[in-house]
User: Fold these one by one.
Assistant:
Number 1:
Amino acid sequence: MTEIFHEIGSDKPAVHKPTRFSWIDFLLVLCIAGLFYGFISVKKEWTDVLRPVVEIDLSPWALPKYTFFSLVRGIIAYCLSLLFTLIYGYWAAKDRVAEKVLMPLLDILQSIPVLGFLPGLVLTLVGLFPRSNVGLELAAIVMIFTGQVWNMTFSFHHSLRALPADMRQVARIFRFNWWQTLRWVEIPYAAIGLIWNSMMSMAGGWFFLMICESFVLGSQDFRLPGVGSYMSVAVNEGNFPAMVYAITAMVVMIVFLDLFLWRPVVAWSQKFKIEETGMQIVASSFFLNWLRKARLLQYISGMSSFIIGSWFHYLFSRKRVYSERGGKIRLPFRIFLYIIYAIFISFFGFGCWKLYHLLQALSISGWRQIFWHGCLTLFRVLSAVAIGTLWALPAGLAVGLSPRLSRILQPVVQIVASFPAPMLYTLIVILLQTIGVSLNFGSIVLMLLGTQWYILFNVIAGAMSVPSDLMEVSGLYEMNLWQRLKNLYIPAVFPFLVTGWITAAGGAWNASIVAEYVVFRGYTLTARGLGAMISQAAEKADFALLAGTVLTMSAFVVVFNRIVWRSLYNIAQKKYSL
Amino acid sequence: MAELSAQVNSSLCDLKGINHSFILPNGNPITVLKDINLTIYRDEIVALLGPSGCGKSTLLRILAGLISPTTGQVLYHGIPLKGVNPGVSIVFQNFALYPWMTVLENVEVVLKAKGLPRGEIKRLADKAIRMVGLAGYEEAYPRELSGGMKQRVGIARALVVEPEILCMDEPFSQVDALTAETLRAEVLDIWSCVEKNPTTVFMVSHDIKEVVYMADRIVIMGTNPGSVRSILRNTLSRPRNSRSQEFLNFVDRIHRIITSAIIPDVEIQAPVTPLKVSPETMILEPLPDVSVNEIIGLLEVLDAHQGEEDIFHLAIEIHKEFGHLINIAKAAELLDLVDTPKQKIILTKLGKRFVDSDTATRKRLWKEQLCTLNIYKRILDMLRRDPKGRLERDYIEGELVLHLPQEDPVKMFNVLTGWARYGELFAYSEDTGYITLE
C-alpha cells in the first residue's frame, strides 16, 4: 500500500528537492531530434505527388520507416478518436434529447464493418486532394479511427452518466463552470475507463491495418507505404522472410507502445481510482519513474499546463453554456444545437436517399443470397465464440485466481492480444491447407485468432474479482473442483463472460471480412459467407452489392445484440452480479 | 441569548410554500415535501430533525438551489433565487471529496473556480486547512484519511469560500462518536466568531442530542409527506453541557414530541371492517419498510428487558437510527406483538408467546397475524379467485399505488412479499414475476 501512496504522492513535480539535468534529459533531446526527422519524412510523404501505385520496398532496411509511418497513422487516428469521444460522449450525456438518437446511432455505427466506410471515404478524400497523398493518408487514418473509436465513446458516456450525485453537486454549489467541471471532475472520473478502452482501441485499430494501407477498389490500387502494406505485398509475392520481418516489426511496435505509452499512462492513472476492491495489481512503470525524474519534462509539462489552463480559462470562464437554473442549456447555444441537428438530419436523409437508389440495383434473389450467406457467417461467429470459451474459460480462471500467474501473464496476454491477427492469416491458411481443412471451416480458426482474447481478458478480470470470503467458504466446505466451478466460479465470472462474448462476437463479425477471403501469392481463397461477399464486392467495386452486404451485416449484428446478448446481459446483471 | 433574539428579525433566506414531488419509475408522482414555510435568520443555527425519508436532505438542497422545488419559492435576501444559492456552501454526509485531488487541491479547487489570483488562493487555502487542524496533511489523498479527517477537509472546503450560510447534511453521521463531538465544538467555535462568515448554520440531522447541543432553533419534521411538525427555540446557554439536567430535559421534551407525532397513542390499525364491506373498499395498511428479522430482533431485545423498554434508550442500546426503530415498533404494533404507550414499547402477551416459541410455531403465529391485516386478506382473496392461482407483480404494484398513493410501491411490494415469505403465506418468484399460493 505504501508503495502506491508513495507513487501517487510523488506525482506532482517536486519543488523542494532539486533535480539535476541527467542523462535522461539528454536521451529525451535525442528522441525529440529523431522524432523531428521522422515527421519531416512523414510530411514529405504526405505532400508528395499522388503516385498511381506506391512501390513497396521489401528490404528489411525499409521497414523502420514504414513502421514509423504506420505508427503515426495509428496515433493520429487515436487522437481523432479521443477528440470524437470527448465531444460526442459529452454531448450525449448532457443533452437528453440528443442522447436518444446519439447512443443508438453509436451502436449502429459500431456494427458497420470497416469496409462499409472505406470506399466512400477513399473516393471522397482522394477527390478532395487530387494532387497529393493527403487524401489517401486521411482516408487510411479515418479507417483506423473507425476501428478504435466506438468503445471509447461508450466508456466515456457511461462514466459521465455514472458520476456520483454528490461529486456533481460539489461542482455546482462551488460554481464550477462547465469547462472546470469537465476538467476537474468529469474527465478524472472517466479517466481509468477511458485509458483501458484506449488500450483496447489501439489494438483494434491495428486489426485492419493491412486493408487500410493496401486498399484495392476495382481496378484502382490505393496503396500507402506502411507496415500493413509491406505485409500485404510480402503475402502477395509469397516472400516468407519479408513476412517474418513485418511481423517482427509489428511486435516491436506494439511492445514499444506498451512500454513507453500505455504502461506509464496506466501507472499514472492509479490516482484516479475511486476505491480499492478485490485483488489489485500495483501498476508501475520504469519509464514513468524516469520521466518523473527528468527535469526538462517537468518544466515542459508545467509550462504547457499553465498556458493551456489559462487560455481555456480565458476562453470559457465568461461564457456559460448552461444557464443557472436547473442546468438548462442557454438559448443561443440551443439554437446552435438545433442547427447541428438540422444538418445532421438532412445529411442522414440524403444518405438514406442515396442508399435507397443504390440498393434498388439488387434483386430479390440477390437479397436472399445475402441473407443466406449472413446465416453462414453467423454460424461461424458463434462457433468461434464457443470454441474460444471452451479454452479461455478454464485458462482465464486459472490465471485470474492465481495472483502470481496473473501478475506474470497479464502483460504478456495484453501484448499478444494487441497483435493484428490478419497478419498471421496467410501462414495459418497454408497450414490448414496442408492438413486438408477448407477455408469454409478454416475461417472459424482465423476468426478465433483475433477474438478469443476478449473472452480471456474478461474471464481473468472476473476471476480476479471473486471475493476472497466466498473462496474461503468453498474451501471450508471442502468442495471439489467441479462443485467449486458450478457453485462459485462460473456464476461469479458469468457477467464478465457475457461482456467478453459480446465483444468477441462483434470482433468476429468484423474479422469475417478478412477471414473468409484470403489472398495469397496472387490467387484467392474464399469461404461461402457474408464477409467474403463484402470483400469481393469491394474488390469488384460493385457498390450496390457492397451497400447491401454491409447493411445486412450491421443488421445481423444489431439484431443479435439486441435480442440475444442484451437479454443474457440482463440475466447476468440481475442474477449473478456480486 | 437576549442579543441574539434582538437580531433575529433580519431574515437571510425564506422558504415559501415549498412543495416537492417527483415521478416514480412507474409514472406515479410521489410527494416528498408538503407546504414548507421556513425563515432562516442571521446569526443562528437552525437544525432540521426528522426520521430518514422525511425529505430533510431534499429541503437542504432546495435551500442551496441545487434542486428547484415543484412549487414554491426560495428568497435569498428577499430576492427570488435563480439557480444555485450564491451565499451557501455545503458539508456533505459522505464528504464528497474528489479522490484524485490532495487535501490541498480539494480546498484550492473551489477558490480556483472563483477565479482568484494564485497567491490569494494559496493564502486562503492554507488558512482554512490550518483552521480545521489539517496542517501537515496538505499532500495526502482522501483515501489515506479517516472519516473524521475527511470531514475536516469537507469543512475546510466549505468554509474557504466564506459562505453566509453553511449547510451541513448529516455532517457527523459517518464519523466516529468521539471525533464527532470534537468537530461539533469546532464548528460552533468557527460560527461564534461574529465578524466573520458563516453567519448562519443550517444543518440536517437525525440525532436529537446533536441538535440540542448545536441549534438555536429546531425544526421537527414528519414523514409521508415531509412537513414541518413544530419549531422549537433552544435557549440553553452556551457552551452547552450535554450531561446537565436542563439539557437532558430538553432532549426528553423533543422525544415526546416526536413520539406523539410519529406514533399517536390512538390505535393506528384500520377500523375492523364489517363483513359486508367488499374487499375493494377495504382500507389497506401501509406496511413500514422493515424486515422480519428486525421485528423479531426487537421482540428478543424487549424480552431480554423484561418485556418493556423506553424507545430512546433502546435506540441507543441497539445502535439503530431512532426513526428506523420507530418504524420497526410500528410494524410490530401492526401485528399486535407490541404496544407503544407514550415513549415505551411493551411486549404484548402474543409477543411474549411468539418470542418463547420455536421456529415452526413462530411461523404459524406470524401467518395468523398477517391474515388479520386487510392488505393480506385482499391479496389472498384475489389469489383464490384467480383461475391460475397467481398474480403478477406489476398488477399488485398497481393495486398498491391505487390504495396507498403516498407509498413507494416497489418498496412496499418487497416488504409485503418479505413478510409473507416468513409466514409461508404465499410465494414470490423473481424469475417469473408471479405471486402464488404456497
Number 2:
Amino acid sequence: MRDGYVIAGWVLALAGIGMYAYRTVIRTRQVAAQLLAIESSTGDDRSAGSAGPLGDA
Amino acid sequence: MTTPSDQLPASTGVSGDGRPQSRIQTVSYLLGLASVASLVVLTVLGLFVTGPDEVQGEVVRLLYIHPATAWVAYTAFGVTSFAGLMWLWPRTRRPMWDHIAGASASIGVVFTGITLGLGSIWGRATWGSWWVWDARVTSTLLLFLLYAGVVALRQVPSSLEARARRTAIGALIAFLDVPLVHFSVKWWKTLHQEASVLQPSGVQVHGLQLVTMLFSFLSFTLVYAWLMIQRTRLARWEDQVLAGGLDAAIEARQAEAGSDLVGSSR
C-alpha cells in the first residue's frame, strides 16, 4: 500500500483538477442556457457565424 | 425531454445533442478525452508501476506530479501576461486577448494552489514540517496571491475595457515574480532542492522515474490546453450574456418610456 502522504497528494491534485473542470463544465452549461434564453427572447442570433471559442473578433 | 442546458444556442457552436459543430469543438472534445486517458496512465505509472526511490522511498511519487503542476502554473501565467500585452498593444487589442488572459490566470491560480499543497505534503514527509519560509516556497505563495488578486480584480464591476486593462497590467506586474520563483533555489540556496531535470550538469532522474515525470508534464499540459479552450469560451459567453442582458434591459426601458410618452400625450 502506498504511503498516506502520497495518497493525500495525489488525491489533492486529481480531485482539485477534477472539481475545477467540473465547475467549468457546469458554469458553461448555465451560461449557455442564459444565452439561449436571451437569443430566444430577442429572436436574435447575435453571433451567427461565430468562429468558435477562440474567435470572438 | 430536453432541458435548457441541452438546447445550446447557435452561438455556442454545439448542437442540441452535444455533438461538436466547429473544428475547435472537435479539438476540445479530443483534448478532453486525451487528458482523462493520460491522467489514468499517469496514475498507474506513478502509483503502481514505478518503484520506491532509494533515498526518498514512497514519497518520491509526489515528485511525479509536483514539478508538472508548477510547470502548468508558469505556462498559464506566461500566457496570461502575453495575452495582457496583446490587449495593451493598440494594434492587437481584441476582446479575445482579455478572455484568454482571464481564463489562463484562473487556471494558473488553481495549479499554483495544487503545487503549494503538494509541496506542503512532500515537505511534511521529508523535512518534517508542513510549511517553511524557504525562498522557493515563499515566492510561490507570493505568486499565488498576486494572481489570485488579478482574478479577484476581474470580478469588480466595471466596463469590459477597464476590466481588461486591469487584468493586463496586473498580470504583467505579477509575472515579475515568475523568474524570482524559478531562480530562487539558485540565488538563495535555502531548503528547497534545485531542479532535477533541467540541470546544466545533466538530468538527475533516470529510467522509469524520468519517463513518468516527463509523462506528467505532457499529461498536465493536455489538461491545461483543454481547460483553456473551455474557460476562454466561457469568458466569451459570459460577456455575451452581459451584453445581451444589457440590450434586453435597454429595450425594455425604451418600450417602457415609449408607453409613458403615449400615456402622457393622451
